[in-house]
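Please, is this right?
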Amino acid sequence: MISNFLFKRPIVVVFDVTKRCNSKCNMCSLWKRPSKVSDELTIKQVEKIFTDLKSFGIKQVFIQGGEPFLRDDLFEIISLIDSIGLKPCLITNGLLLTKFNALALSKLNCNVTVSLDTLKPLCYKKIRGIDAFNVVKKNLLFASKLPRKGYWSINSTISELNADELVSLYDFAIVNGFSFTVFPYNYSVCKASAKDESLVFKNKNAVLVSFRKLSVKARERKDFFVKLIADETIKYLSGGYTKPCDALRYSIMIDECGRIAPCIELSSEFDLRKNSIRDIWPKLDKARVRNCYLSTPCFYGCTRGVSAVMCNLFNVVKFSILNPKKSISLLRLL
């Protein structure tokens, strides 16, 4: 992994295991184009591709969709990625995080992120397109009582509809024993995202107030990374945020068919079923990424998470020295 930092090669893979989904989120367009089961990578293909990626210095794999639980072999995929020596992190909407699935998942060496954007059933339906708040809440409360091998968190996407709930969502996560991640609603070229006027910020000042409150609360709790993302989000929402994104710098994206792309918003260029990452890497168009973030800067977790840490490395080291116990617990993310 250190060599990848030195040679400016990715350490994170965003892996869309399927485009099938059981939600109809207004912020997303993927569910409108579900993948066919027959087109999705087999276990053998996953093994070949990710063994190759491991040799290239990749460290972490974000397993997402669509909804990953719609794959019958999800647990096999997670266990395989772990056995290869990569750190899996599952991103799910929580609808299928049943008692059986939560118990099985809690025993795996896998970090888990569950999406929850609101604590209001009606608002959930408006954002996610289905009436399922109570299902997700019930699943989360059951999972909160389990001893968990991985590092579990709740992620919230903050939009015009739920900006006033930001601190409440943070409190809900902490009280129930979860970590918390948050990113603002945004859209880029809309290959994966979608523009929805009900989610677009009408009053950015009100949203900025919510993120500033979160920053203060996170500082009081010594929740360094929540404060870091809150502060970076404030910069982004204030305008003029054109820092280089993580795409092809710290992260790459692989779709359900094994095709590689800089990120979820840019089209794929090569097929890892047929080519090695070492052969593909010099051919990837980095200028396309630069043009994208300069013209339509976004703030997705996969394209801003690592760089947010790297740009604040001095403060990260300082926090680790002053708060060794918290730093040790955060090593579970790696």
Q: What stands out?
A: Residues 2-333 form a domain with the TIM Barrel fold (CATH 3.20.20.70).
